[in-house]
Structures are given as structure tokens and as C-alpha cells.
Amino acid sequence: MRTYLVTGGAGFIGSNYIHYMFKKYDNEIRIINVDVLTYAGNLENLRDVEDRDNYTFVKADICDRDAINKIFEENDIDRVVHFAAESHVDRSIVNPEVFVQTNVLGTATMLNAAKKAWELPDGSFKEGKKFLHVSTDEVYGSLDDDPNAYFYETTPYSPHSPYSASKASSDMLVKAYMDTYKFPANITNCSNNYGPYQFPEKLIPLIINNALAGKDLPVYGDGKNVRDWLFVEDHAKAIDMVQEKGRLFETYNVGGHNEKQNIEIVKTIIDVLREELDDSDPRKAHLSYDLIKYVTDRKGHDRRYAIAPDKIKAEIGWEPETMFNEGIRKTIKWYFEHHDWMEHVTSGDYEKYYSKMYGNK
């Protein structure tokens, strides 16, 4: 049975990845989920799998060298999938040091622990071991409005926020380990994810939640910043395929072929909600574009991101399966059906979940 160590598995993308892996492999794999449970880590995301014999949760900080080394010493880890990171740009602008600590030093701790566990006396590494570092397209900086301009794996790094700078730094560390030690790793750089379990500080769940509550829908600047949207289950599949088929030491860009302006996203959500809500639902009455409120633009706000996932398609056979019109409806339906989850998150009650077992956050 192959053992996966997943960092940040209680977060949005990590928890979706864990669900995907158990759905695909069932009892053929074992997953150890390591998460420190910051505000973005929510164990309610994993209630469906928490009682599985082949799933283990460990509350630990990826910056805690002793704790991480202990996990490797007590388990024969075959694969590391490294999601754990501070990821919200606005928060990074307010408190950059936290992002450097987690994203850079935490990645160094993970790399060192895996290297120590997997390295053989001759400097080579045990067969079949692999470390996958999950990163972002934001490390590439910003594109202009030219529809033919895209991010490729060869695009020079040009981060513009403390968040993207910290992720670029972590990418460089992984690259250095691959070059210096021939450490068995890959890097994936993905576009904006959306789907179930996303913390409602991010655009799509924030807009869904505020629209249903009749609250203002804040949009930065002129609303014309463009992002490439990737349905989270498609991303989980890409990560699995890179682990299985990716060439060692390579970077793969993972994009959704779904470029949208932020204002388009907001208007689409309003339109879909109006379609989905029954006429008798009182929430439908206040759903209109009048809720949109333009606010002062974010500092250093990148204008456009767009990934060309040509390499991952050519080498591995992955391509996005979920176009935005389908994915946004799936996402809205999930939030409709999991209203309690959203209430627990927005109220802060989720932070009390398992607090007696794992301690306060």
C-alpha cells in the first residue's frame, strides 16, 4: 500500500485532493494529513473520510522540524504532496512575515525531512519516492491584455505581492534541491481554483455568500482583472497524474482554459443564483447587479493571469474537463446543499471542531 503525506490537507485544495484520491484508489492507498489548523484549515471538510482505517490526521506545523521528522521516521512515506501554504494576497500585504515563515521555511523543513528519509548512502534516492510541490501562477507576475499572451513553464518569475514572492521563493528551493541533490520532485503551478470547501474570503464563495445574504458584493478597481479559473477536482486529477506520469525534476503548469474578468464572475454568480432560486424564495428579490460595489484596488494588483497547459497535456495527457459554466453551477449547488458548512465557517464555529482532541488553534 502506497503512503501519501499530504500537507495542508484540511484546506480547500488539499481536502478536495484527499477526497479525489480516496474516490479513485479507495483502500489501495494510505493518506497521512498534516495540518496546523490555521483559520483556513477546517476538519469539517474531511468528515466523510475521518473514520477510514487508511486515513490519519496529524496536527503539526510544517515549520516544526522535530514533528515533521518524526512523521517520516514512524512511517514509510512514498509520496509527499505539499499544499500547506498561506495563500491570501490581502493577508500577505498586511503581514508578510507569516507568509515567509510558512511558505519558505516550511517548505525547507519538508524538503529536508524527505531528503533525510529517502536518501541512500551513495547520495541517490530510494526507488519510487516523489515530492510534489504545489504552487501558483502568481509567481509569473502579470500579463497584459494581449489574448495571445500566456504563462509557460519557461516564463521568468516576476512576483508582485508578498504572497507570490514567498511562493516563488519556495519554488526556487525545490528547484535547488532537484538540481543540487537530484532530489525526486516536481512542481506544479496552477491557476485560480474554485469549488467545494473554499474559504469564503476568496472571490467566488464570498460573492455567493454575500449575494444570498443581500450584502454588498465588493469588486476591486474596475473589475476587469482577468484570472484563469480551474475547477478544483480537475486540479486534484492533474496532481495525481503528475505524481504517476510526470518526469522527475520537471515543472508543469495547470490551467483551466477559463479566463474571466472578475466582474464577469460576479455577474455570472448573480445570474445563476437567480436561475436556481425559486420565485417564492425571499432571497431572490434582492439579487441584482445593484449589490455590486466597486472598492479601492488592491495594492500591486496583477492585471491578468493566463496559463498555457500545453506541456502537461502533451507529456501526461491531462487537460481540464470542467468548463466554467458547468463548474460554477456545481459550486453553487454544493454551497446550497452545505449551508451548515458555510454557517460554521462564517461564524467561526468550525474552529471549535475537535478543539478538545487537538487543542486550540
Give a written overview of the molecule.
By secondary structure, this protein is an alpha/beta fold. Helix content is 41%, strand content 16%. The chain has twelve helices and twelve strands. It has a seven-stranded parallel beta sheet, with helices on both faces. Strands 7-9-11 form a three-stranded mixed beta sheet. A two-stranded parallel ribbon has the order 8-12. Helix 1 links the parallel strand 1 and strand 2 (29-35). Helix 6 (203-213) packs across helix 8 (262-276). The model has no long low-confidence stretch (mean pLDDT 93).
Regions with little confidence, pLDDT below 50 for 5+ residues: none
The CATH C-level name is Alpha Beta
Using DSSP, what is the number of strands? 12
Overall geometry comes to globular
CATH architecture: 3-Layer(aba) Sandwich
C-alpha termini separation: 32 Å
Biggest sheet: strands, sense, closure? Answer: 7 strands, parallel
Mean pLDDT equals 93
Q: List the total number of helices.
A: 12
Helix/strand structural class: alpha/beta
> Could you please say which CATH topology applies here?
Rossmann fold
Strand order of the largest sheet: 3-2-1-4-5-6-10
**Amount of helix:** 40-55%
The CATH homologous superfamily: NAD(P)-binding Rossmann-like Domain
Q: Please give the domain count.
A: 1
Strand content: 15-25%
Enzyme class: lyase
GO molecular function: dTDP-glucose 4,6-dehydratase activity
Pfam families: GDP_Man_Dehyd (PF16363)
Protein name: dTDP-glucose 4,6-dehydratase
